[in-house]
Amino acid sequence: MSSDCIFCKIVKGEIPSTKVMETEKSYCFLDINPINPGHLLVIPKEHFTTIFDIPDDVLADLISTVKKLSEAVYKAVSAEGINVVQNNYRAAGQLIDHAHFHIIPRFSNDGFLTSWPGKPANASDLNAVKDKITSHL
Ligand code: 5GP
Ligand code: ZN
Questions:
Q1: What is the pLDDT of residues 85-129, one digit of tens each?
Q2: Please, which contacts does 8-17 make with residues 24 or more away whose CB atoms are closer than 8 Å?
């Protein structure tokens, strides 16, 4: 528990939330500022800041909960698609420093993430970055 963490307070019931389900290690509730109705957050009950900090057993519980809830919300709101989003650090859009997965039901014309501004890379670029990544495994 991080004493000033909003999500830790939600898990403890000190701040209200619309809980959807919980497991031994995970807690799921509706995002208070949804992209679309049914936008869910799945969080570890214990405080971890980013995905890098979450032990594998907790992560396994989280991702299995994400899978179950993604299917449930997809059916519940008759979504046309689902985004699972997990932001780490400010540059990636993380505002709450308690690791979490977003489950976002999507519709064709909802205006969210309508383009993915990829930049073409050649084989040499791809190999160079692949070598950097594998050097850290
Ligand atoms: P992030 O940008 O950190 O990935 O997303 C944080 C999410 O938490 C946002 O979508 C925001 O709407 C949601 N959020 C922030 N504070 C609260 C809260 O007190 N209750 C609930 N239910 N959601 C919150
Ligand atoms: Zn926390």
A1: 999 999 999 999 999 999 999 999 999 988 889 999 999 999 999
A2: 8/47, 8/98, 10/43, 11/43, 11/45
> Residue 93: nearest ligand to its CA?
1
Q: How far is the CA of 73 from the centre of ligand 2 (A)?
A: 25
Q: Are 110 and 17 in contact (CB under 8 A)?
A: no
- In angstroms, what CA-CA distances link 97 with 13, 83, 119? 18, 20, 29
Q: What does the domain layout of the chain look like in residue ranges?
A: 6-134
The token pair at 73 is 């919300």
Q: Which residue has the tokens 């403890």?
A: 12
Active site residue 136: no
pTM: 0.96
What is the homologous superfamily of the domain 6-134 according to CATH? HIT-like (3.30.428.10)
Q: Which of 89, 94, 95, 103, when mutated, tests ligand 1's pocket best, judged by the most ligand atoms within 8 Å of its CB?
A: 95
